Amino acid sequence: MARQLDYCTFCPKMCRHACPVSTATGRETLIPQAKMDRLNQIRRGNAPWTASSVEPIWACTGCRQCTAYCNHNNEPGLVLLAGRAEANARGVGHPNLAGYPDRFRGREQRLVAQLRDSVAAEKLAVRGTIGYWPGCDAVGKGLDDVSAALDLFERIGAAVDVVDGGLACAGYPLLAAGYVDMFRWHAGKVARVLKEFRTVIINCSACTYALRALYPAEGVLISTEILALAEFLSRMADAIPTARQKKVVYYHDPCYLARYSGVLEEPRRVLARVAEVREFGWSHSDTECCGGGGLLPKTMPEVADTMARKRLHEVVKGGGGTVVTSCATCAFLLKRNASSGVSVRDLPSAVIEALDRGAD
Predict the structure, then answer these.
(1) Which residues contact 66 (CB under 8 A, 6 or more apart)?
(2) Which residues of the chain have pLDDT under 70?
(3) What is the CATH number of the domain that holds 314?
């Protein structure tokens, strides 16, 4: 970590253009090099551990676009998470995240109850072959998309139950808030629930990455196969009827799905069954962040919304249209900031809508 901080400190800012937060704010102090330099100066004792001094380390979604342009493969997003944990330990965490572990637990309880109320009892299961675990934002902000996913599973003949283990989130927000010990504890609980399924499908790109990579990094091993919803649907794509009239849609790559997990062609394969897929200027592994990661909607909500509107501007400029994504968090933030003439759909809802319009 020290090496990465030193490399970024003395870098000629080659990734300046790749930080969506600094671009949205116009603040030079929020480019990746400056954020890493600030953390490095604090680490070296050249700057104090104060709330104002550490403020820049919260201005990051962890989107990893800066890493894509780094000759040393530095990971500012991950290093800044470690800085957040240290800031919390020193009592200078972000004021908007005060008491976050308790808030997280309360939200878990509400979302579990909400999911159980919205799903037929016979579809809920504590063990099985294939389980669907929608993700906290899907339950809290996109229940229609959860229903669409369940409808789509049924239409393509996939026997999928909804995971009913008393948990709603894989815990990535805890890590993003700087609570590593709480994240590790929560991960252990999640692992015990998910081990009762052979395969678990999840529709949160950040938590997909957490389950696959961050859990093992914290010593929490999961034998269950973890699939993003787009990956599972891609395996079943041949069972999705082909639409007779394919509507043009733009596909937005979620950062954590594209750059962290390498899930690029799977959602496009699914969409191609029912739509004509167009690409953003920034797409695939060079996608542009919508502002949903890193708890930015809580620490810098106006900036997160600005990033979402910036992401949709290309569609607005082209006269409007439909944007499809494959992450509940991205879908929520883009929907919230879509202007007139632009509609946003999560992947299962887009497919169901196309099938309802007619398919071969």
Answers:
(1) 15, 18, 19, 32, 74, 76, 77
(2) 359-360
(3) 3.40.50
